[in-house]
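Predict structure. Chain length: 326.
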Amino acid sequence: MCCSTLVGPVQLKRSRPCYLGTSPSVSCKRADSLALTTIERQGTQYVVEADIKAFFDNVDQNQLMAFLAHRVADKRVLRYIRRFLKAGIQEDGVYRASDRGTPQGGVISPLLANRYLHYTLDLWFQRRFQPSYTGSARLIRYADDYVACFKREADAKRFRIEMEKRLGLFGLEIAPEKTRILAFGPMAQQWAKEQGRRKAETFDFLGFTHYCTTSRNGKWFRVGRKTISRRLSARLKAFKEWLRANRTLPTAEIMRTTANKLRGHYAYYGVSGNSRSISNFAYQVELILFKWPGRRGKRGSLKFEKFRLLRQRFPLPPPRIQVNLW
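Prediction complete.
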């Protein structure tokens, strides 16, 4: 199956790259589901976790325009895109022209960056690297976040070396501290115990930490996932800062906004296997809510019983799984 079609069952005789990019018809959940399926059902034993250093800042604009010219025949469209790239930025009243990269926050920057990686990474993997590997292999990419899954360690090591050379040809480089090869698959836990470690290594992809686990009956290998801890901490910190700055708002508005923030968190992180993380997030949000409104009056003015009545009057959405990835 060629994953760009996004149809049909995931059953492969020869693994192929999956480059979902930023198409409006797919989501990062689809990419994570494909990574899960590849690791659990297609013999993956090694994963290459990669990160491109300052990707949006280092896109070669001339190369990008050349790639776009392969698919866009209208010269006016290409001219508008070049003007968008050359528009520059203004910081503290100082204008600075941009001759490299795509404007972060620009409306079409994700689309342009996806096209750039399609030519620099996806097609290279499919046409150059894929014909020479010895076991199963698959590249799964969503925007600039990607992982590569391999059955054989030799293929993973060769991909790590050749990928760095390939990206270097287009002005990109990987972040060494965030790029590594790890044993991850049905045998990873056993190998970890043989090496004297309690658990197999984990990797991060699309906001989730993926780890090796088993089914509920303990018979089958499963890929578990949980919210990346630093992202969970960052979201709680952001909520606390928002509440601190807006604690004088009417209580109804504070509770309504908090409910919306929780729904947004559940919508992204509420995937199968992550119930503990989203429940912990909801619990921590309630603790913050209990603390800060009490500071609007005298110390200790908001007792628990009063807070319980407040929760009954303004109920918050309970944590629940919204997307099943199995």
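Summary: Strands lie at 18-19, 46-50, 89-91, 94-96, 137-142, 145-150, 180-183, 203-205, 208-214, 221-227.
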